[in-house]
Amino acid sequence: MSVSPNKLWEQSLHLIKENVTEQQFNTWFKPIGFESFKEDTKTLLLQVPSPFVYEYLEENYVDLLSKVLTRVYGKGVRLTYRVVTDRMHNLTQDIEAEPTETSEKPMPTTRGNQSPTTLDAAPQEIDSQLNPHMTFNTFIEGDSNKLPRSIGMSIAEHPNTTQFNPMFIFGPSGCGKTHLINAIGSRIKQLYPQKRVLYISARLFQVQFSNATLRNTVNDFINFYQTIDVLIVDDVQEWMTAAKTQMAFFHIFNHLFLNGKRIILASDRPPVDLKGMHERLLTRFACGLIAELEKPNEQLCWEILKQKIHRDGLNIPDDVIRYIAHTANGSVRDLQGVINSLLAYSVVYNSNIDMRLAERVIKRAVKVDDKPLTIDDIMETVCNHFNVTTTAVSSRSRKHEYVVARQVSMYLAQKYTKMPAARIGKLVGGRDHSTVIHSCSQVEQRMKVDKAFQSEISSIENSFKLKK
Predict the structure, then answer these.
(1) What is the pLDDT of residue 109?
(2) Among 88, 225, 271, 462, which is disulfide-ready with 252 (CB 3.0 to 4.6 Å)?
(3) Closest Cα partner for 82 from 60, 116, 102, 57?
């Protein structure tokens, strides 16, 4: 007596269950419903509860499904999904799965390490990449950041709740976004040391994805990020022209979100203004909490300055502090740059920090108008600093001083202009976008470990701010 197609699907589920973890089976396979099987065309129709589930099955379990269906139903099975797109109105969409070559290797009969993802193995400890100096203790509260700070603290203390997930923080450069998201991550790590917390810039994520693509290890790349408990991504606006990176993050986001993991994102603009970002990513960015960080007002700038001055053991008169707070354009980075410059000038010239010195430094360090910087402005300033020519930097020469000036030019161009990486590369000697991304990553990594190089970058930035 022949076995009914419905019973064959039950056998298929039994085989799948032997080759994945219980959590994976309950999450991805148990909700699948058998619809029909047409003998003449060998077409199996399965219903899945949402587009999320369909996309995840196709991304991560297509090989397993192919092997199981071949064993149970025979060779040549065509798999079709009936995806529920609107549960309220009972709307569905039928999608045929991509045909997959079936391996001739025998199917495993025990679990062990045979899961198609890395979730079966206990993940190893990772470096969270958090800045230990950016904590809630050093994040001064004011009217411009009170709501995001309060919600961020709540998330840090209760990261397992699904409320406010994802948290999307946006605001202008220098308002404290990076500090706040690092503070959230550090607090979670302090309270829940067993959690896998990772902070990463969008640019570095893109570099890692590009490298994984070149090495044909994209699955490993995605699987690693799917093991993270709290993923914090800074400057996601960097992905607006990176469609493939967006797709990779889309699958990572879906997995983390569906498994109750915490996602925290930061950008210099709200989701609605991320032109070039895929619509289905934007809807996910907006489905949790969107919190705006405004530029700090003069009072908050004064409090931030007082804290930094006290922490650094400096002696600066109150009238000078008030003057800096009033003229630093509400940028925390500008505030820190002014204090660092004041300290350097006072040491070099052996003079006290007074109003006259503050006025001199402010004039050089703080942007006083909105005239946009061009790549030519940036390259000229960088080349003057490193005592090289723009022609040499734009050439194909691999001399060390030219390479450094070239990488710094690309880094600052990406930071201070709105041009995509491909355009920047074309203007800096006809390079491609991957060279620009790699150069920016190299500069960022060196700045983390080389304080002298970090000071050089600050000096260059102050120089072209003066030109503006």
Answers:
(1) 39
(2) 225
(3) 57
Exposed e or buried b per residue across 199-217, where buried means at least 16 C-beta atoms within 10 angstroms of its C-beta:
bbbbbbbbbbbbebeeeee
Burial environment of residue 19 by CB neighbours within 10 A (0 to 12, 13 to 18, 19 or more): buried
Contacts made by residues 359-363, CB under 8 angstroms, sequence distance 24+ = 359/323, 362/323, 362/324, 362/327, 362/328, 362/338, 363/466
Compute the radius of gyration of the chain from its Cα atoms: 27
SS3 for 96? strand
If residue 15 lies in a helix (H) or strand (E), which one and from where to where?
helix 5-18
Cβ contacts of 4 within 8 Å, gap of 6 or more: none
Residue 321 has a pLDDT of: 81
Cα 83 from Cα 32, distance rounded (Å): 10
Regions of the chain where pLDDT drops below 50: 1, 100-122, 368-371, 468
Cα 383 from Cα 255, distance rounded (Å): 46
DSSP structural state of residue 119? G
pLDDT recorded at residue 103: 41
- Which amino acid does the sequence have at 372? P
**Quick check: 437 and 210 in contact, CB under 8 A?**
yes
C-alpha distance from residue 34 to each of 16, 29, 162 (Å): 15, 11, 31
Per DSSP, the residues of 57-81 read: HHHHSHHHHHHHHHHHH-TTPEEEE
pLDDT of amino acid 179? 92
Supply the pLDDT for residue 110. Answer: 38
Whether omega before 31 lies within 30 degrees of 0, making that bond cis, reads no
Amino acid sitting at position 310 = H
What are the Cα distances from residue 107, in Å, to 12, 22, 111? 12, 18, 11
**Which tokens belong to 116?**
């198609």
pLDDT at 328: 66
